[in-house]
User: Which sequence fits this backbone?
Protein backbone atom coordinates (compact mmCIF):
# COMPACT_ATOMS: atom_id res chain seq x y z
CA UNK A 1 0.00 0.00 0.00
CA UNK A 2 2.95 2.37 0.47
CA UNK A 3 3.35 2.90 -3.24
CA UNK A 4 -0.36 3.52 -3.77
CA UNK A 5 -0.23 6.44 -1.36
CA UNK A 6 1.12 8.53 -4.18
CA UNK A 7 -2.30 9.65 -5.28
CA UNK A 8 -2.51 11.64 -8.51
CA UNK A 9 -4.10 15.05 -8.70
CA UNK A 10 -7.65 14.29 -9.82
CA UNK A 11 -8.42 17.93 -10.52
CA UNK A 12 -6.29 17.63 -13.65
CA UNK A 13 -8.25 16.47 -16.70
CA UNK A 14 -7.49 13.01 -18.10
CA UNK A 15 -6.81 13.17 -21.79
CA UNK A 16 -8.17 10.26 -23.77
CA UNK A 17 -7.86 10.23 -27.54
CA UNK A 18 -11.43 9.40 -28.52
CA UNK A 19 -10.74 8.62 -32.17
CA UNK A 20 -7.69 6.54 -31.27
CA UNK A 21 -9.53 4.51 -28.63
CA UNK A 22 -12.47 3.75 -30.90
CA UNK A 23 -10.23 2.79 -33.79
CA UNK A 24 -8.08 0.60 -31.57
CA UNK A 25 -11.15 -1.08 -30.06
CA UNK A 26 -12.53 -1.85 -33.50
CA UNK A 27 -9.28 -3.61 -34.44
CA UNK A 28 -9.83 -6.26 -31.78
CA UNK A 29 -12.94 -7.40 -33.62
CA UNK A 30 -10.98 -8.35 -36.72
CA UNK A 31 -8.72 -11.09 -35.40
CA UNK A 32 -9.03 -14.49 -37.00
CA UNK A 33 -9.75 -17.14 -34.38
CA UNK A 34 -9.28 -20.80 -35.17
CA UNK A 35 -11.82 -23.42 -34.12
CA UNK A 36 -9.91 -24.90 -31.21
CA UNK A 37 -9.06 -21.48 -29.79
CA UNK A 38 -12.67 -20.48 -30.22
CA UNK A 39 -13.80 -23.50 -28.23
CA UNK A 40 -11.40 -22.70 -25.39
CA UNK A 41 -12.36 -19.03 -25.55
CA UNK A 42 -16.05 -19.86 -25.30
CA UNK A 43 -15.50 -22.09 -22.28
CA UNK A 44 -13.34 -19.43 -20.65
CA UNK A 45 -15.98 -16.77 -21.29
CA UNK A 46 -18.64 -19.05 -19.80
CA UNK A 47 -16.47 -19.43 -16.70
CA UNK A 48 -16.16 -15.63 -16.40
CA UNK A 49 -19.86 -14.87 -16.34
CA UNK A 50 -21.57 -13.25 -13.37
CA UNK A 51 -25.03 -14.63 -13.98
CA UNK A 52 -27.25 -11.75 -13.02
CA UNK A 53 -30.80 -11.11 -11.95
CA UNK A 54 -31.50 -7.60 -10.69
CA UNK A 55 -35.20 -7.05 -11.00
CA UNK A 56 -37.74 -5.57 -8.66
CA UNK A 57 -39.76 -8.72 -9.26
CA UNK A 58 -37.02 -11.16 -8.17
CA UNK A 59 -38.28 -13.86 -5.84
CA UNK A 60 -36.55 -16.59 -3.82
CA UNK A 61 -37.71 -19.08 -6.43
CA UNK A 62 -36.25 -17.08 -9.31
CA UNK A 63 -32.90 -16.83 -7.53
CA UNK A 64 -32.84 -20.54 -6.70
CA UNK A 65 -33.63 -21.31 -10.32
CA UNK A 66 -30.77 -19.09 -11.47
CA UNK A 67 -28.41 -20.81 -9.01
CA UNK A 68 -29.44 -24.19 -10.40
CA UNK A 69 -28.67 -22.88 -13.86
CA UNK A 70 -25.25 -21.69 -12.65
CA UNK A 71 -24.39 -25.21 -11.57
CA UNK A 72 -26.07 -27.05 -14.46
CA UNK A 73 -25.53 -24.85 -17.47
CA UNK A 74 -26.37 -27.52 -20.01
CA UNK A 75 -26.21 -31.09 -18.75
CA UNK A 76 -26.36 -32.46 -22.29
CA UNK A 77 -22.78 -31.20 -22.63
CA UNK A 78 -20.66 -32.94 -19.99
CA UNK A 79 -17.56 -31.26 -18.65
CA UNK A 80 -18.69 -27.67 -18.93
CA UNK A 81 -17.35 -25.17 -16.39
CA UNK A 82 -19.72 -23.35 -14.05
CA UNK A 83 -20.18 -19.59 -14.20
CA UNK A 84 -18.05 -17.44 -11.89
CA UNK A 85 -20.73 -15.93 -9.70
CA UNK A 86 -24.37 -15.15 -9.19
CA UNK A 87 -25.15 -11.45 -8.94
CA UNK A 88 -28.25 -10.50 -6.92
CA UNK A 89 -29.69 -7.87 -4.61
CA UNK A 90 -28.59 -8.03 -0.92
CA UNK A 91 -31.97 -9.39 0.17
CA UNK A 92 -31.39 -12.46 -2.03
CA UNK A 93 -27.81 -13.24 -0.91
CA UNK A 94 -28.96 -15.65 1.75
CA UNK A 95 -31.07 -17.65 -0.72
CA UNK A 96 -28.31 -17.76 -3.32
CA UNK A 97 -25.68 -18.74 -0.76
CA UNK A 98 -27.78 -21.70 0.39
CA UNK A 99 -28.60 -22.79 -3.15
CA UNK A 100 -24.98 -22.71 -4.29
CA UNK A 101 -23.57 -24.46 -1.19
CA UNK A 102 -19.90 -25.32 -1.50
CA UNK A 103 -19.91 -25.41 -5.29
CA UNK A 104 -17.29 -22.65 -5.51
CA UNK A 105 -19.63 -20.34 -7.41
CA UNK A 106 -19.45 -16.97 -5.69
CA UNK A 107 -22.30 -14.72 -4.67
CA UNK A 108 -22.02 -11.07 -5.60
CA UNK A 109 -24.43 -8.51 -4.18
CA UNK A 110 -25.13 -5.07 -5.54
CA UNK A 111 -25.16 -2.59 -2.68
CA UNK A 112 -25.04 1.15 -1.92
CA UNK A 113 -28.56 1.96 -3.12
CA UNK A 114 -28.07 0.29 -6.49
CA UNK A 115 -28.67 1.35 -9.26
CA UNK A 116 -28.98 5.13 -8.61
CA UNK A 117 -26.69 5.42 -5.61
CA UNK A 118 -28.83 8.32 -4.41
CA UNK A 119 -28.80 7.64 -0.68
CA UNK A 120 -26.99 8.96 2.38
CA UNK A 121 -23.66 7.40 3.14
CA UNK A 122 -24.73 5.64 6.32
CA UNK A 123 -27.51 3.88 4.41
CA UNK A 124 -24.97 2.72 1.84
CA UNK A 125 -22.66 1.44 4.54
CA UNK A 126 -25.50 -0.48 6.21
CA UNK A 127 -26.58 -1.85 2.84
CA UNK A 128 -23.04 -3.10 2.25
CA UNK A 129 -22.58 -4.53 5.74
CA UNK A 130 -25.94 -6.33 5.48
CA UNK A 131 -24.90 -7.98 2.21
CA UNK A 132 -21.54 -9.04 3.69
CA UNK A 133 -23.22 -10.45 6.81
CA UNK A 134 -25.57 -12.45 4.63
CA UNK A 135 -22.49 -14.05 3.13
CA UNK A 136 -21.78 -12.14 -0.08
CA UNK A 137 -18.30 -12.86 -1.46
CA UNK A 138 -18.29 -9.77 -3.59
CA UNK A 139 -19.92 -6.36 -3.36
CA UNK A 140 -20.89 -4.36 -6.45
CA UNK A 141 -21.19 -0.71 -5.43
CA UNK A 142 -22.26 2.25 -7.54
CA UNK A 143 -20.46 5.59 -7.35
CA UNK A 144 -22.35 8.86 -6.84
CA UNK A 145 -22.39 9.99 -10.45
CA UNK A 146 -24.07 13.29 -9.58
CA UNK A 147 -21.27 14.23 -7.20
CA UNK A 148 -18.67 13.04 -9.68
CA UNK A 149 -20.11 15.17 -12.48
CA UNK A 150 -20.20 18.15 -10.11
CA UNK A 151 -16.46 17.74 -9.70
CA UNK A 152 -16.61 16.53 -6.12
CA UNK A 153 -13.96 13.89 -6.64
CA UNK A 154 -12.95 13.78 -2.98
CA UNK A 155 -16.50 12.86 -2.05
CA UNK A 156 -16.47 9.97 -4.50
CA UNK A 157 -13.00 8.88 -3.38
CA UNK A 158 -13.97 8.88 0.29
CA UNK A 159 -17.19 7.07 -0.45
CA UNK A 160 -15.39 4.22 -2.21
CA UNK A 161 -12.77 4.03 0.55
CA UNK A 162 -15.49 3.86 3.21
CA UNK A 163 -17.40 1.14 1.42
CA UNK A 164 -14.18 -0.81 0.91
CA UNK A 165 -13.71 -0.72 4.66
CA UNK A 166 -17.29 -1.95 5.20
CA UNK A 167 -16.67 -4.85 2.81
CA UNK A 168 -14.19 -6.59 5.09
CA UNK A 169 -12.95 -9.65 3.20
CA UNK A 170 -15.44 -9.32 0.34
CA UNK A 171 -13.98 -8.10 -2.93
CA UNK A 172 -15.28 -4.70 -3.98
CA UNK A 173 -16.45 -3.97 -7.51
CA UNK A 174 -16.94 -0.31 -8.26
CA UNK A 175 -19.57 0.45 -10.89
CA UNK A 176 -18.79 3.67 -12.74
CA UNK A 177 -22.00 3.66 -14.82
CA UNK A 178 -20.10 4.86 -17.86
CA UNK A 179 -23.32 5.55 -19.77
CA UNK A 180 -23.90 8.49 -17.42
CA UNK A 181 -20.32 9.73 -17.45
CA UNK A 182 -20.56 10.42 -21.19
CA UNK A 183 -16.91 11.10 -22.10
CA UNK A 184 -13.88 8.80 -22.08
CA UNK A 185 -11.98 11.44 -20.10
CA UNK A 186 -14.46 11.08 -17.27
CA UNK A 187 -14.43 7.28 -17.50
CA UNK A 188 -10.65 7.31 -17.14
CA UNK A 189 -10.78 9.68 -14.21
CA UNK A 190 -13.48 7.68 -12.44
CA UNK A 191 -11.44 4.50 -13.00
CA UNK A 192 -8.37 6.10 -11.45
CA UNK A 193 -10.32 7.40 -8.48
CA UNK A 194 -11.87 3.98 -7.87
CA UNK A 195 -8.57 2.13 -8.07
CA UNK A 196 -6.67 4.54 -5.82
CA UNK A 197 -9.55 4.45 -3.33
CA UNK A 198 -9.23 0.70 -2.96
CA UNK A 199 -11.46 -1.01 -5.57
CA UNK A 200 -10.69 -4.65 -6.34
CA UNK A 201 -12.71 -4.53 -9.55
CA UNK A 202 -13.82 -1.70 -11.76
CA UNK A 203 -17.09 -2.32 -13.56
CA UNK A 204 -18.66 -0.42 -16.41
CA UNK A 205 -22.37 -0.39 -15.79
CA UNK A 206 -25.39 -1.30 -13.75
CA UNK A 207 -27.13 -2.69 -16.81
CA UNK A 208 -30.01 -0.28 -16.15
CA UNK A 209 -28.71 2.51 -18.38
CA UNK A 210 -28.07 2.46 -22.11
CA UNK A 211 -25.37 2.53 -23.42
CA UNK A 212 -23.95 -0.06 -21.04
CA UNK A 213 -20.58 -1.73 -21.67
CA UNK A 214 -19.00 -0.96 -25.03
CA UNK A 215 -15.61 -2.05 -26.29
CA UNK A 216 -14.05 1.44 -26.35
CA UNK A 217 -15.18 2.21 -22.79
CA UNK A 218 -13.83 -1.14 -21.63
CA UNK A 219 -10.56 -0.41 -23.42
CA UNK A 220 -10.22 2.92 -21.59
CA UNK A 221 -10.74 1.11 -18.29
CA UNK A 222 -8.33 -1.70 -19.17
CA UNK A 223 -5.67 0.85 -20.00
CA UNK A 224 -6.32 2.57 -16.67
CA UNK A 225 -5.80 -0.81 -14.97
CA UNK A 226 -2.58 -1.35 -16.91
CA UNK A 227 -1.19 2.08 -16.00
CA UNK A 228 -2.20 1.57 -12.36
CA UNK A 229 -0.40 -1.77 -12.36
CA UNK A 230 2.77 -0.21 -13.77
CA UNK A 231 2.68 2.56 -11.16
CA UNK A 232 1.76 0.56 -8.08
CA UNK A 233 2.36 -3.10 -8.87
CA UNK A 234 -1.21 -3.83 -7.79
CA UNK A 235 -3.59 -5.81 -10.00
CA UNK A 236 -7.15 -4.68 -10.43
CA UNK A 237 -9.87 -6.81 -12.00
CA UNK A 238 -12.29 -5.69 -14.70
CA UNK A 239 -15.98 -6.35 -15.27
CA UNK A 240 -17.83 -5.08 -18.30
CA UNK A 241 -21.56 -5.45 -17.73
CA UNK A 242 -24.68 -4.97 -19.76
CA UNK A 243 -25.14 -5.30 -23.50
CA UNK A 244 -22.83 -8.28 -24.00
CA UNK A 245 -25.22 -10.97 -25.14
CA UNK A 246 -23.48 -12.67 -28.08
CA UNK A 247 -20.56 -15.07 -27.82
CA UNK A 248 -18.77 -13.43 -30.73
CA UNK A 249 -18.70 -10.15 -28.83
CA UNK A 250 -17.49 -11.94 -25.71
CA UNK A 251 -14.59 -13.38 -27.73
CA UNK A 252 -13.75 -9.87 -28.97
CA UNK A 253 -13.56 -8.75 -25.34
CA UNK A 254 -11.22 -11.64 -24.51
CA UNK A 255 -8.98 -10.70 -27.43
CA UNK A 256 -8.88 -7.14 -26.12
CA UNK A 257 -8.17 -8.30 -22.56
CA UNK A 258 -5.32 -10.51 -23.73
CA UNK A 259 -3.74 -7.81 -25.85
CA UNK A 260 -4.04 -5.02 -23.28
CA UNK A 261 -3.43 -6.75 -19.96
CA UNK A 262 -2.03 -10.11 -20.95
CA UNK A 263 -2.52 -13.70 -19.92
CA UNK A 264 -2.42 -13.11 -16.17
CA UNK A 265 -5.81 -11.45 -16.41
CA UNK A 266 -7.34 -14.25 -18.48
CA UNK A 267 -9.28 -15.94 -15.69
CA UNK A 268 -12.35 -15.25 -13.62
CA UNK A 269 -10.41 -13.87 -10.69
CA UNK A 270 -9.37 -10.88 -12.82
CA UNK A 271 -12.10 -10.59 -15.41
CA UNK A 272 -15.86 -11.05 -15.43
CA UNK A 273 -18.75 -10.56 -17.76
CA UNK A 274 -21.88 -9.15 -16.15
CA UNK A 275 -24.58 -10.74 -18.25
CA UNK A 276 -27.68 -12.87 -18.19
CA UNK A 277 -28.40 -13.90 -21.78
CA UNK A 278 -24.73 -14.35 -22.79
CA UNK A 279 -24.54 -17.77 -21.14
CA UNK A 280 -27.20 -19.27 -23.40
CA UNK A 281 -25.65 -17.87 -26.54
CA UNK A 282 -22.28 -19.37 -25.59
CA UNK A 283 -23.95 -22.70 -24.82
CA UNK A 284 -25.60 -22.66 -28.23
CA UNK A 285 -22.24 -21.97 -29.87
CA UNK A 286 -20.57 -24.76 -27.92
CA UNK A 287 -23.31 -27.19 -28.93
CA UNK A 288 -22.93 -26.03 -32.53
CA UNK A 289 -19.20 -26.81 -32.36
CA UNK A 290 -19.92 -30.21 -30.86
CA UNK A 291 -22.79 -31.36 -33.06
CA UNK A 292 -22.12 -29.38 -36.22
CA UNK A 293 -25.75 -28.28 -36.21
CA UNK A 294 -27.07 -24.77 -35.62
CA UNK A 295 -29.01 -24.64 -32.38
CA UNK A 296 -32.36 -23.29 -31.26
CA UNK A 297 -33.05 -21.41 -28.03
CA UNK A 298 -35.93 -23.83 -27.45
CA UNK A 299 -33.52 -26.50 -26.28
CA UNK A 300 -31.78 -24.43 -23.59
CA UNK A 301 -33.08 -23.45 -20.17
CA UNK A 302 -34.47 -19.94 -19.97
CA UNK A 303 -32.60 -18.82 -16.83
CA UNK B 1 -15.38 16.78 -77.67
CA UNK B 2 -18.72 15.51 -78.81
CA UNK B 3 -20.99 13.81 -76.32
CA UNK B 4 -20.99 10.09 -76.96
CA UNK B 5 -24.32 8.80 -78.17
CA UNK B 6 -24.26 5.56 -76.25
CA UNK B 7 -24.69 5.79 -72.47
CA UNK B 8 -22.99 3.26 -70.23
CA UNK B 9 -25.76 1.30 -68.54
CA UNK B 10 -25.83 1.18 -64.74
CA UNK B 11 -26.27 -2.47 -63.90
CA UNK B 12 -27.92 -3.76 -60.74
CA UNK B 13 -25.92 -5.64 -58.14
CA UNK B 14 -27.90 -8.77 -57.35
CA UNK B 15 -27.73 -9.14 -53.60
CA UNK B 16 -29.42 -11.39 -51.06
CA UNK B 17 -32.29 -10.29 -48.81
CA UNK B 18 -31.98 -10.87 -45.04
CA UNK B 19 -33.93 -9.15 -42.29
CA UNK B 20 -35.30 -6.46 -44.61
CA UNK B 21 -31.86 -5.52 -45.90
CA UNK B 22 -29.80 -6.32 -48.95
CA UNK B 23 -26.36 -7.44 -47.81
CA UNK B 24 -23.82 -9.15 -50.04
CA UNK B 25 -23.13 -12.70 -49.00
CA UNK B 26 -21.00 -12.94 -45.86
CA UNK B 27 -18.68 -15.30 -47.78
CA UNK B 28 -17.85 -12.73 -50.47
CA UNK B 29 -18.38 -15.40 -53.15
CA UNK B 30 -20.37 -15.05 -56.34
CA UNK B 31 -21.34 -17.04 -59.40
CA UNK B 32 -22.24 -15.99 -62.91
CA UNK B 33 -25.84 -16.42 -63.99
CA UNK B 34 -26.12 -17.15 -67.70
CA UNK B 35 -28.84 -17.83 -70.23
CA UNK B 36 -29.14 -20.86 -72.53
CA UNK B 37 -26.63 -19.38 -74.94
CA UNK B 38 -24.11 -19.08 -72.11
CA UNK B 39 -24.27 -15.30 -72.26
CA UNK B 40 -23.47 -13.66 -68.95
CA UNK B 41 -26.51 -12.06 -67.27
CA UNK B 42 -25.21 -11.03 -63.87
CA UNK B 43 -22.91 -11.81 -60.99
CA UNK B 44 -25.03 -13.31 -58.25
CA UNK B 45 -24.21 -13.93 -54.58
CA UNK B 46 -23.14 -17.49 -53.84
CA UNK B 47 -24.75 -17.67 -50.41
CA UNK B 48 -23.13 -19.58 -47.56
CA UNK B 49 -24.36 -21.44 -44.50
CA UNK B 50 -23.64 -18.35 -42.44
CA UNK B 51 -25.98 -16.30 -44.60
CA UNK B 52 -28.58 -18.96 -43.92
CA UNK B 53 -27.84 -18.85 -40.21
CA UNK B 54 -28.28 -15.06 -40.17
CA UNK B 55 -31.51 -15.41 -42.14
CA UNK B 56 -32.89 -17.88 -39.59
CA UNK B 57 -32.12 -15.44 -36.79
CA UNK B 58 -33.94 -12.70 -38.74
CA UNK B 59 -36.90 -14.97 -39.49
CA UNK B 60 -37.18 -16.14 -35.89
CA UNK B 61 -37.05 -12.54 -34.70
CA UNK B 62 -39.82 -11.54 -37.10
CA UNK B 63 -42.07 -14.51 -36.32
CA UNK B 64 -43.73 -13.18 -33.16
CA UNK B 65 -44.72 -9.89 -34.73
CA UNK B 66 -45.89 -11.40 -38.02
CA UNK B 67 -47.90 -14.29 -36.58
CA UNK B 68 -49.36 -11.93 -33.99
CA UNK B 69 -50.76 -9.53 -36.58
CA UNK B 70 -54.42 -9.56 -37.39
CA UNK B 71 -55.00 -12.01 -40.24
CA UNK B 72 -56.84 -9.28 -42.10
CA UNK B 73 -53.75 -7.08 -41.91
CA UNK B 74 -51.61 -9.87 -43.35
CA UNK B 75 -54.09 -10.00 -46.22
CA UNK B 76 -53.69 -6.27 -46.78
CA UNK B 77 -49.94 -6.64 -46.93
CA UNK B 78 -50.12 -9.53 -49.40
CA UNK B 79 -52.39 -7.39 -51.55
CA UNK B 80 -49.84 -4.60 -51.32
CA UNK B 81 -47.12 -6.97 -52.56
CA UNK B 82 -49.31 -7.74 -55.57
CA UNK B 83 -49.78 -4.01 -56.21
CA UNK B 84 -46.04 -3.41 -56.13
CA UNK B 85 -45.42 -6.36 -58.43
CA UNK B 86 -47.99 -5.05 -60.89
CA UNK B 87 -46.14 -1.71 -60.97
CA UNK B 88 -42.87 -3.41 -61.87
CA UNK B 89 -44.27 -5.90 -64.35
CA UNK B 90 -42.07 -4.71 -67.21
CA UNK B 91 -38.90 -5.36 -65.25
CA UNK B 92 -39.95 -8.90 -64.39
CA UNK B 93 -40.94 -9.67 -67.97
CA UNK B 94 -37.59 -8.33 -69.10
CA UNK B 95 -35.71 -10.51 -66.63
CA UNK B 96 -37.68 -13.62 -67.52
CA UNK B 97 -36.95 -13.01 -71.17
CA UNK B 98 -33.26 -12.61 -70.41
CA UNK B 99 -33.55 -16.03 -68.81
CA UNK B 100 -34.79 -17.63 -72.04
CA UNK B 101 -38.57 -17.19 -71.83
CA UNK B 102 -40.39 -15.71 -74.82
CA UNK B 103 -42.59 -12.66 -74.33
CA UNK B 104 -45.88 -14.54 -74.13
CA UNK B 105 -44.52 -16.99 -71.56
CA UNK B 106 -42.99 -14.21 -69.51
CA UNK B 107 -46.17 -12.13 -69.48
CA UNK B 108 -48.23 -15.15 -68.49
CA UNK B 109 -45.90 -16.00 -65.62
CA UNK B 110 -45.82 -12.47 -64.22
CA UNK B 111 -49.60 -12.03 -64.48
CA UNK B 112 -50.14 -15.35 -62.79
CA UNK B 113 -47.73 -14.41 -60.00
CA UNK B 114 -49.69 -11.22 -59.33
CA UNK B 115 -53.02 -13.05 -59.39
CA UNK B 116 -51.71 -15.72 -57.05
CA UNK B 117 -50.69 -13.11 -54.50
CA UNK B 118 -54.20 -11.65 -54.65
CA UNK B 119 -55.62 -15.16 -54.28
CA UNK B 120 -53.67 -15.83 -51.07
CA UNK B 121 -54.29 -12.30 -49.85
CA UNK B 122 -57.98 -13.21 -49.77
CA UNK B 123 -57.36 -16.47 -47.92
CA UNK B 124 -55.36 -14.85 -45.09
CA UNK B 125 -58.38 -14.39 -42.82
CA UNK B 126 -60.50 -17.23 -44.23
CA UNK B 127 -58.50 -20.46 -44.25
CA UNK B 128 -58.84 -20.66 -40.45
CA UNK B 129 -62.60 -21.13 -40.75
CA UNK B 130 -62.46 -24.00 -43.21
CA UNK B 131 -59.79 -25.91 -41.30
CA UNK B 132 -61.13 -25.28 -37.81
CA UNK B 133 -63.73 -27.36 -36.05
CA UNK B 134 -65.82 -27.55 -32.93
CA UNK B 135 -65.43 -31.12 -31.75
CA UNK B 136 -68.05 -33.21 -30.01
CA UNK B 137 -66.65 -34.53 -26.72
CA UNK B 138 -68.03 -36.69 -23.95
CA UNK B 139 -67.59 -34.23 -21.11
CA UNK B 140 -68.56 -30.70 -20.11
CA UNK B 141 -66.07 -28.99 -22.36
CA UNK B 142 -66.24 -26.67 -25.28
CA UNK B 143 -63.66 -28.32 -27.51
CA UNK B 144 -62.30 -26.66 -30.62
CA UNK B 145 -59.38 -27.05 -33.01
CA UNK B 146 -57.78 -24.28 -35.02
CA UNK B 147 -54.65 -23.89 -37.14
CA UNK B 148 -51.59 -22.01 -35.93
CA UNK B 149 -48.45 -21.16 -37.92
CA UNK B 150 -45.51 -23.53 -37.45
CA UNK B 151 -42.83 -20.89 -37.17
CA UNK B 152 -39.75 -20.59 -39.36
CA UNK B 153 -39.89 -22.44 -42.68
CA UNK B 154 -36.81 -23.05 -44.83
CA UNK B 155 -37.78 -23.55 -48.47
CA UNK B 156 -35.81 -24.42 -51.56
CA UNK B 157 -37.66 -22.89 -54.49
CA UNK B 158 -38.28 -24.72 -57.79
CA UNK B 159 -35.40 -24.53 -60.26
CA UNK B 160 -37.65 -23.86 -63.27
CA UNK B 161 -40.63 -21.47 -63.15
CA UNK B 162 -38.32 -19.19 -61.20
CA UNK B 163 -40.86 -16.46 -60.49
CA UNK B 164 -44.19 -18.25 -60.21
CA UNK B 165 -42.59 -21.07 -58.25
CA UNK B 166 -41.07 -18.64 -55.77
CA UNK B 167 -44.28 -16.64 -55.34
CA UNK B 168 -46.41 -19.79 -55.04
CA UNK B 169 -44.18 -20.98 -52.19
CA UNK B 170 -43.86 -17.72 -50.30
CA UNK B 171 -47.47 -16.51 -50.49
CA UNK B 172 -49.17 -19.39 -48.62
CA UNK B 173 -46.32 -19.53 -46.09
CA UNK B 174 -46.68 -15.92 -45.02
CA UNK B 175 -50.46 -15.88 -45.47
CA UNK B 176 -50.54 -18.48 -42.71
CA UNK B 177 -48.36 -16.38 -40.39
CA UNK B 178 -45.05 -18.19 -40.86
CA UNK B 179 -41.76 -16.52 -41.61
CA UNK B 180 -39.41 -18.07 -44.13
CA UNK B 181 -36.01 -18.35 -45.74
CA UNK B 182 -36.15 -19.20 -49.43
CA UNK B 183 -33.29 -20.33 -51.61
CA UNK B 184 -33.96 -19.00 -55.12
CA UNK B 185 -33.50 -20.97 -58.33
CA UNK B 186 -29.80 -21.39 -58.94
CA UNK B 187 -29.93 -21.16 -62.73
CA UNK B 188 -32.53 -18.36 -62.86
CA UNK B 189 -31.98 -16.13 -59.85
CA UNK B 190 -32.70 -12.68 -61.33
CA UNK B 191 -36.44 -12.49 -60.60
CA UNK B 192 -35.99 -13.68 -57.03
CA UNK B 193 -33.73 -10.77 -56.15
CA UNK B 194 -36.02 -8.30 -57.87
CA UNK B 195 -38.98 -9.85 -56.06
CA UNK B 196 -37.13 -9.17 -52.79
CA UNK B 197 -37.14 -5.49 -53.78
CA UNK B 198 -40.89 -5.70 -54.30
CA UNK B 199 -41.30 -7.24 -50.84
CA UNK B 200 -39.11 -4.57 -49.37
CA UNK B 201 -41.34 -1.78 -50.68
CA UNK B 202 -44.65 -3.28 -49.62
CA UNK B 203 -45.11 -2.94 -45.82
CA UNK B 204 -43.89 -6.48 -45.24
CA UNK B 205 -41.85 -6.34 -42.02
CA UNK B 206 -38.14 -7.16 -42.44
CA UNK B 207 -37.26 -10.77 -41.69
CA UNK B 208 -40.66 -12.26 -42.62
CA UNK B 209 -39.29 -13.32 -45.99
CA UNK B 210 -35.57 -13.81 -46.53
CA UNK B 211 -34.27 -14.71 -49.95
CA UNK B 212 -30.89 -16.29 -50.60
CA UNK B 213 -29.15 -17.26 -53.83
CA UNK B 214 -26.66 -20.10 -54.08
CA UNK B 215 -26.16 -23.81 -54.63
CA UNK B 216 -28.85 -26.26 -53.55
CA UNK B 217 -26.42 -29.11 -52.88
CA UNK B 218 -24.30 -26.89 -50.64
CA UNK B 219 -27.09 -25.29 -48.62
CA UNK B 220 -29.79 -27.99 -48.46
CA UNK B 221 -28.16 -29.87 -45.52
CA UNK B 222 -28.28 -26.72 -43.38
CA UNK B 223 -31.89 -26.04 -44.39
CA UNK B 224 -32.66 -29.53 -43.10
CA UNK B 225 -30.63 -29.75 -39.88
CA UNK B 226 -30.92 -26.27 -38.35
CA UNK B 227 -32.57 -26.81 -34.96
CA UNK B 228 -34.41 -23.48 -35.08
CA UNK B 229 -36.26 -24.26 -38.32
CA UNK B 230 -39.71 -25.83 -38.03
CA UNK B 231 -40.32 -27.08 -41.56
CA UNK B 232 -38.39 -27.68 -44.78
CA UNK B 233 -39.71 -27.52 -48.33
CA UNK B 234 -38.08 -29.07 -51.37
CA UNK B 235 -39.52 -28.96 -54.89
CA UNK B 236 -37.29 -31.16 -57.08
CA UNK B 237 -37.59 -34.91 -57.72
CA UNK B 238 -33.93 -35.56 -56.78
CA UNK B 239 -34.34 -38.66 -54.58
CA UNK B 240 -30.96 -38.40 -52.93
CA UNK B 241 -31.51 -34.86 -51.69
CA UNK B 242 -35.04 -35.77 -50.60
CA UNK B 243 -33.65 -38.60 -48.50
CA UNK B 244 -30.95 -36.40 -47.00
CA UNK B 245 -33.52 -33.73 -46.10
CA UNK B 246 -35.79 -36.30 -44.46
CA UNK B 247 -32.94 -37.76 -42.44
CA UNK B 248 -31.51 -34.48 -41.22
CA UNK B 249 -34.95 -33.04 -40.54
CA UNK B 250 -35.61 -35.82 -38.08
CA UNK B 251 -33.12 -34.18 -35.68
CA UNK B 252 -35.75 -31.78 -34.36
CA UNK B 253 -38.73 -33.47 -36.01
CA UNK B 254 -39.16 -30.82 -38.70
CA UNK B 255 -42.05 -31.18 -41.04
CA UNK B 256 -40.78 -32.03 -44.52
CA UNK B 257 -42.93 -30.95 -47.43
CA UNK B 258 -42.08 -32.14 -50.94
CA UNK B 259 -43.65 -30.32 -53.87
CA UNK B 260 -41.93 -32.32 -56.61
CA UNK B 261 -45.12 -33.01 -58.55
CA UNK B 262 -46.72 -29.58 -58.48
CA UNK B 263 -47.21 -27.81 -61.83
CA UNK B 264 -46.66 -24.23 -60.74
CA UNK B 265 -48.25 -22.63 -63.79
CA UNK B 266 -51.59 -24.39 -63.30
CA UNK B 267 -54.50 -23.67 -60.99
CA UNK B 268 -53.69 -26.86 -59.14
CA UNK B 269 -50.74 -24.99 -57.63
CA UNK B 270 -52.97 -22.76 -55.55
CA UNK B 271 -55.34 -23.78 -52.81
CA UNK B 272 -55.82 -23.18 -49.09
CA UNK B 273 -54.24 -26.60 -48.53
CA UNK B 274 -50.88 -25.04 -49.38
CA UNK B 275 -51.45 -22.78 -46.37
CA UNK B 276 -52.46 -25.76 -44.22
CA UNK B 277 -49.24 -27.56 -45.11
CA UNK B 278 -47.46 -25.23 -42.68
CA UNK B 279 -49.99 -25.05 -39.88
CA UNK B 280 -50.20 -26.96 -36.63
CA UNK B 281 -53.68 -27.77 -35.38
CA UNK B 282 -54.18 -26.71 -31.80
CA UNK B 283 -57.05 -28.24 -29.87
CA UNK B 284 -58.42 -26.45 -26.83
CA UNK B 285 -60.54 -27.95 -24.06
CA UNK B 286 -62.52 -25.22 -22.36
CA UNK B 287 -64.55 -26.27 -19.31
CA UNK B 288 -68.19 -25.19 -19.44
CA UNK B 289 -71.52 -25.99 -17.94
CA UNK B 290 -73.99 -27.72 -20.20
CA UNK B 291 -75.23 -25.55 -23.01
CA UNK B 292 -78.94 -25.11 -23.63
CA UNK B 293 -80.02 -28.17 -21.71
CA UNK B 294 -77.93 -30.51 -23.87
CA UNK B 295 -76.20 -33.16 -21.82
CA UNK B 296 -72.53 -33.86 -22.28
CA UNK B 297 -71.78 -37.00 -24.20
CA UNK B 298 -73.56 -36.77 -27.51
Assistant:
Amino acid sequence: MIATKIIPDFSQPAHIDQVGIEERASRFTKRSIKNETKLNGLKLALNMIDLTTLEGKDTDGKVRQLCYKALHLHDAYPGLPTVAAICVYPSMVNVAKKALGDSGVKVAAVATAFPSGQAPRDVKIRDTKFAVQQGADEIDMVISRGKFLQGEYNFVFDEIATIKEACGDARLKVILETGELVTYDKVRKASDIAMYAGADFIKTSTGKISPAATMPVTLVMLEAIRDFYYKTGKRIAMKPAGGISKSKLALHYLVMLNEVLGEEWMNNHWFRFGASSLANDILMQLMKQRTGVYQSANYFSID
Amino acid sequence: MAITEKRLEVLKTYKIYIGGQFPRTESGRYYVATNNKSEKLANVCLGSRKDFRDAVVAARGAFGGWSGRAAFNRGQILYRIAEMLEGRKAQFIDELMKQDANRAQAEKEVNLAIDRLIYYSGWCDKFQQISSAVNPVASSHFNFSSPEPMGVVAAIAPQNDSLIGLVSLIAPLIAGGNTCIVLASNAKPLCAVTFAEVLNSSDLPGGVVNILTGKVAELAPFFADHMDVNATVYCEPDAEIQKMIREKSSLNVKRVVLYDKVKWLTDAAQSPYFINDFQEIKTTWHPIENIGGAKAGY
Strands of chain B lie at 30-34, 40-45, 133-135, 141-149, 152-156, 179-183, 209-212, 231-234, 255-258, 279-287. Chain B has ten helices and ten strands.
